[in-house]
Structure formats: structure tokens, C-alpha cells
Amino acid sequence: MQRCGQPGCTGKVLSDGYCDTCGTKAPAPAPPPGKPPAKPTPAPSAASPAPAPPAPRNLETGSTRSGGSRRTVSGRTRTTSRRSTIGAGIVDVPPAPSIDPATIVMADPEVSEEKRFCSNCGAPVGRSKGRQPGRLKGFCPRCRNAFDFVPKLKAGDLVGRQYEVVGALAHGGLGWIYLARDKAVSDRWSVLKGLLDAGDEAAMAVAVAERRFLAEIEHPNIVEIYNFVTHAGAGYIVMEYVGGPSLKQILKQRREANGGEPDPLPVDRAIAYVLAIMPAFNHLHRRGMVYCDFKPDNLIQVGDQVKLIDLGGVRRLDDPSGDVYGTVGFQAPEIAESGPSVSSDVYTIGRTLAVLTMDFRGYQSTFQHSLPDPAEHPALAANPSFYRLLLKATAMHPDDRFQSVPELADQLVGVLREVVAVATGTPQPGPSAVFAGAPEGDGLPVLTVDPADPAAGFVANLSSDDPNDVLRSIADALALKQVTETVELRLRRARAYVELGRRDEAGAELARIEADDPWEWRASWLRGVMALDAEDPATAIRAFDRCLFEVPGELAPKLAAAIAAERAGNVAAAASLYDVVSTVDPSYVGAAIGLARCRLKAGDVPAALAAFGRVPSTHRAHGEAQLAAVRALVGADRFAEAGQVLEQIQAAGREAAQLDVELFEAALSGLTAGTVKAQPSVTVRGQRLDEPGVRQGLERAYRTLAKLSPDDPERWRLVDRANHVRPLSLV
């Protein structure tokens, strides 16, 4: 079997050509010598067009968008390869011990009253009245649908002439789940899950035939389907037994260990579990299937891997007539009207993350389709990017969510890096799928080009040095019909207008992009950049705020929002964002320097020095940061420390001489004004910290700077100042 060629991935390429671990398509094998490569065949669409939903709400204004058509997923969704082992190489999750199946069979299988609901309308059924216990069989008082909570199978029953029932394991949405031994395969442990109770053999045969497509699903993170069988008028999916705890059981164990009080999973661990199951969702979606019923019950940890179990709710996107199964509190709000979709699966993933990380009371009632106040939940209050990710993943309208699992996974990895870095203080840098990496100095990174765009190659090869040349090249290529108008071409044109300060033309170009695709957040990014150039921080803040919610795992929007906040005078907000960016990735040196500026404005010199210290020693801005640290110390009258830092750095020539002048000028000013106390026992750059010593140091600094000055008048001025400040001497 061919191994995956992605860097850092240890997976194998399955028969469909995709890696079983990272989900990336393997490159086609090289053709034999002399034989031309075969032309690729375009893959058919997995889903038929969905009905048009109500117009989605605008994230910024709250108004409905015009157009009314359902959002379509384009090549704009990108992803980088990710490893599927738990933790994504960022956090360590302890392996789970395997569970002996014989130990978890229910001795007295019964569904508790509070969990008895009608499978048709969801109304409570089988409830007690006074001293009369609730019925296990009967009819729903609301819709008259029959209910039956009595297990249909008992120990010893032989199902499908092959599977000997050991007992009941649990009760799920489709009925009881049983443990069995496969008598045809060496008593292999198997799990039987009810499909439905059709009432007649003919209908059951049709139902089983319709579900046989599940046997085609082969993925290491998805429970294997062995068979489909009927027994006494009921159908069952036969699955492999997965011996490990579900996330629901892990939460229960944590509660019990915490004295009966809820103990949600740490955010990093919850994200690690969900990231590890992303390849399974991607595998289903690529084959035109949706899972529909994701929740903590259906993800099991097996050693150091995870598996999706319970495929009873899996539907084909091209089968709108099939029943849709879901769970209140996890199911997307549009399911009843529009049916399941990739976006509705994204919704269930977001809701699962919320339930795993919070004491989320009311998630099936008060907060059935919303999130609680972050101030009341530490996981949200301490991790604003995680909160933003949950808001986007669980947006009420499907068009406002992440449009694919790889898109969600990319942002989840970014959020995980941030959560771990902020909690531990250890940097967690990583690549971005949409930005070109850390910028130089105080600048902002540029957007990368979507390789799926038809004009991607042309745009990527455009020179970025002269925006006028960029505009001419685009115009010429369009005139010669070498390229067509695409979103990447328009974004590059808009960026050139921004760089030239042609704001009216940039605004018009961005408006056209947004009219075609109201969800194109990159237009908001360029609007923010343009607003910063125009010294309009209020507009920049609004633009970058949208970017923060659209790509919550990216560092670039946080850096941009910090710059805008600082320019608007909100130093505290700016410092918080600068702190996050420079903690996660020290190569964003502009964030460290920005944080130092904010700390100095707040009067916290030690914190400012610590921020300057975040600039990596290997970065070319390191010297600049150290010089800024010297000036910060001088401004705080910490002259001895400033001198020590100055002696350690590599400043030379006029730069070093100028710093010497600033240091001794400030010291002399403080000594003569009485704000600095003379300390003859303390030395500053080899001079005593008293007036005679400081004057000698300043005289020397002036003369050194004069020798290095190329301008005669300036040189004479510095010599005059040296003569003026030198200490008096007796002849």
C-alpha cells in the first residue's frame, strides 16, 4: 500500500486515492517512460442543489443580505495537511485503556423515564402519573405514534443465523444497541444497532437494502460496518465492537472524580479530540455523505486514536427522501426545512465542542440554538478565539458557518495553538492557510492566493513591487483574454489601489467583490488595511473585527486589530491582542514591539522590557528591540541598567554614540533637577552616577558623535556642546 507523501504524515493511501490519516489526495503515479500522463477526469458533484433558505443575517449590521441564493462552496476553501493523531502534535492526550465488552452489558436494561421521548414528535412519553409507573409500551399522547422501550432481543437470541446476542449495551435514538458474538467469525465481538421496526418483512428488506451503502465506508477513524440483517421484523446494522470510552463517558468519569460536580474537558483536550476525528468527516463528505448525529456519545477513544461510531444517522446528500436523525441541542436549526448538509455537520461539531468544554446547562432548551454569556463560562472567557470559532461553527444560518470540515479544521488548529501558547507561555507557531506568514517589522502580512482560483497562477506571478505595474499587467491580460475576472484577480487589483492610495477605486472594487459574495471576508481585510492607511482606526476596527470572527484561528487579524485599537487610543485592548500574537509566534516581531509600546504608555517599564525580550535573537529586528529597550530604561531613569543593555548589544557607529548621548543627557538632566539621586558607587558606561561622572560621560559621547558626523556645522555644534558640559577643572 502506498504511503502518504505529505510532510509529517504517517498515513497510507487507500484504494480511493486519499490518505487514511490526513485526508489529502495522493499525487498520481508517474507514467511509464514514453507514455503521456492520462488527463484527469472531473469528479461528479456529490450533492444536488439545495432549496433556497431565508436570506441570512449580516454579521455586522444585522440586516438580511440580498440575493437569497444558498451559499455555494468554491475553491476558496483551503486547508493544509494535518496529522490525525490525538493532539495534532501540539498537546498530549493520554491513551485510553481498552474495555472488556462483557463488563459493560446491562444487567437490567431499562430506559429511565426522563429519557423516554416519542421518536416521531419528540414529546415525553412513558411517564409516571402519581403512584402509577410509566408504561414501557404505548402510544404518544400528542401524535399517537407507537413507542416501545422493551428490548426486542435477549441473551442467547441468534440474529441473522450468525450473531448470538450477549445482552443490551445502551438505548439510542433508533432503539436498543446489543453486544453479540459472531458465530461465523471465531466468536468475534460485534455490535447490533436497530435500523427501524417496519412491521413487515418486505418493507424491512427495502430498508436494509437502502442502508447497504454504509458498508462502503472504510476509514481508520470510522467504526467498520460488517453486515445488515433482519430478525423478527426488525433490521440491524452489524458493526465492529470498539473497546474504549466515549467522550460522554469521559465527561461522566470526570464528574464522578470531582465529587459529582461538572468538570468539563480543558479546551485544548476537547479540540484535540475533535481534530482527530476531522479526517473521518472529510472522508464522508467527499463521498457525498453526512453524519447527521455527532455528539459526545458517538466519539470513542481507542488507545491513542479516536473513532466515529453509530452510523445509523448517516445519509446520502443525493437522497432527500431519507429520514434524518439527530439529537436536540446538537442538530442544526434548518434540518427540518432544508435537510442535512456539510454545514449541518459542522454545526454538530461546534455544539459538541461547546458541550465538552462548558458546564452547559440548558443546551437542549434555553440555549438550544445559541451560546451562553462568555463571562459565565471560564472556557469562553479565557479563550476569546475559541468562543468566536464556536459562534461561527454554530451560526443560525448555514451560510454563515464554516463551509467545509477542512476549513473548520484549519481554524481549530490555529485556536489550539493559541490556547496552548497562552496557557503555557511556550510559543506554538504554525503555517497559515490564508496569510503569507509573519510580516517584516510593523507591517501586516499579505493574503495568499487561492490555488483553486482560475487566475491563481497569473496573480501569484504578478510583481508586488510596483502596484502601477500590477494594474497594467492585469488590464493587459484581460484585454488579451489571457485571464478572466475572478475573485483573486479583483482582490489583487483592489490591493494595488489600496497601496496607491486610490481609495475610491479600491472601495468600488471591494464593493463589487462583496456584491458577488457577501461572505468574502478578505474584502473586509483590505477595507481594514485601507482604513489604517487613511488614519481611520474606527473603520479599521469594524473591518478587522469581522475577520476575527471569520478566521478565529489566524494571527494576522489579531495583529491588525491590535494596531487599529492602539491608534484609536484603546491601549489595553491593543496590548491584549499584541500579547496573544507575540506569545503564539515570536516571529511576529511587530506584535512584541507593539506590546512594549502599550506597556510603556501604561507606565509598566518591566513589562515593556519583557515584551522587547520576545523578539528572537536571530531576527534582524532584535537589535532594534534592544535599542528601544535602552530608551525605555533611560525614560524610566534606570541609567545603570540602560548602560548594561547598551554594552551587550551590537550597536556601533553613530547609532551607539547617539544612544550614549541620550543616556547621559537624561542622567544629567535628572541630577541637576534633583529628580535623580547621585550614587557615586554606581557606574553608568564606566562613569560614576554623580554630576561630575555623568558630565565626563556626556562630553565623551558628544565628541565621539562629532567625529562620526559627516556634516561640518553639526560636528562643530557637538564639539561646542562637549566643551559646555564638561566638568570644571582646577589648573
TrEMBL record:
E.C. designation(s): 2.7.11.1
Bias (Low complexity) ranges: 61-85
Pfam families xrefs: Pkinase, PknG_rubred, PknG_TPR
PROSITE patterns: PROTEIN_KINASE_DOM
Ranges of biased composition (kind: Pro residues): 28-43
Domain named Protein kinase: residues: 163-413
Chain positions covered by the region annotation Disordered: 20-94
Keyword DNA-binding annotated: no
Domain of life: Bacteria
MF terms (GO), sorted A to Z: ATP binding; protein serine/threonine kinase activity
Keywords associated with the record: ATP-binding, Kinase, Nucleotide-binding, Serine/threonine-protein kinase, Transferase
Substrates-to-products reaction catalysed: L-seryl-[protein] + ATP = O-phospho-L-seryl-[protein] + ADP + H(+); L-threonyl-[protein] + ATP = O-phospho-L-threonyl-[protein] + ADP + H(+)
CDD domains: STKc_PknB_like
Name of the featured protein: non-specific serine/threonine protein kinase
Record organism: uncultured Acidimicrobiales bacterium
